[in-house]
Amino acid sequence: MYFNNITTANRGARFDQPGGGIGTNSYYFTNWINENLTGTDTALLIQDSGPNAPGIASTSVLNSVSIHNLNNSDAVNGPAAYTLFQELGTSQGIALVDLNEVNSFGGLLSCGPNSTVCNDRPALPVNSDLSATLGGTWGGGMQVTSTGIHAEAPILSKMAYGQYGQTIPNPSWAMVFPAPNQFQINSTGAGSLAANTYCMAVEGKDAQPTSGLTLPTNTLCQTVGASSSIVLQWQQASGNLNAAYSGFRFLFCSTGGSSCTPNNYLDLAAGGNPYSYTFTSTAGSAGTTLNTVSTAYLSWLYWDGAKKSCLFCTSAGGSLSWQLGIGEANPSAGVKLAVAGGTLQGEGGIQAGTDVAFNASPRSFYNAFLPNLTSAAATYQRATLDKAITVTRLQLVLGTAGAGCTTQSTVSVTDGTSPITLTTVNGTAIYDSGAVSQNYAAAANLDIKIATAASGCTTAPQNANISVEYRMQ
Q1: Final residue of a domain: which of 236, 261, 287?
Q2: Residue range of the domain that includes 224
């Protein structure tokens, strides 16, 4: 059913079921003026699943409801007290909604007294364009307004085949830079510009390997005499994106008339806010046209392989102004990426700065030198751990192997509870525990000691170099 150019007062429309099979139909309302909703009906369209007629028990949902260009005014209790739709009863009868230019309501859906449909907020598929009627539902809707897009369903990125592999790639998602703003001419002075009228604009550049460009600023024109310069200034989103842009493209043209369209450019480095530039020469410029589609992003994700995606990519000077937390809502000052809990895994390795990447927990060595293993059993080296470690190997090399010993020496690394021990053998100089995995807690005293002194030797085991390999936990 189609309703066009209608006017209602005090109430809108009501669908009572069961009662003649009004469901399974679609209803289209266009150019609707409604005034003075009362305190009794607290929604414009009310769906009542009944029962409302004797002898009829079955109900069916409304196939779809479309409302375009609705003017709702002078509600008795103010617009915030009313919803666009209301359900009465135990079953949801409003199944699909299409809205355009529908405003002046406190929410999309509510339930009347003793209705159970809204015990949990129901899902309602909604296509809502330039309307302010979100609320009362949870899931299924899509609302587009001047302040944002509210998606109540998964956002699935798709592109046509022809959109892949473009010279300027199409992102599946991007945070698009605005054009520089508050572009102005501050003054003129001496320089190398020829006498002419110069018309100028500025575009921002992003940090992509091949820089994307914002839309241009407004075009300003200035007439100067011979040997002149023009001092200009602009903002980076009024200072809120200071140092986010990785540079700027200054565009200009010259004419003997009053105006022209900029068709040459000079590339400028990144800078602070406000950004000041003295246009004093056209040397080094190249031809171009004003950009018409913004391809400059703060963050971007590309579909195409071999294209590099990035989050919070700015000029070098702005890199620490944008911080990212994973499970960490408040990264410390100077931290670009903060991860709370769990493990950050890099299967191919992790690289610090420009140094060589490492692909395992950092290893180090704890060493000791024992002149003679016939010395008394005692501790000869100690390290108190400030962090927990795992010992992975113990090795011993003798400068002089023992001979004729009736009691062999034992050398240990231990926290007093969990030792790793090597035992010497007559005539052998090199000893290796092989791979081990022994954890030692932070604050433990990790000792290298002679646990048993060698004795009865014709040649004492001497000049022992002990090496303990460990990794950080």
Answers
A1: 287
A2: 176-287
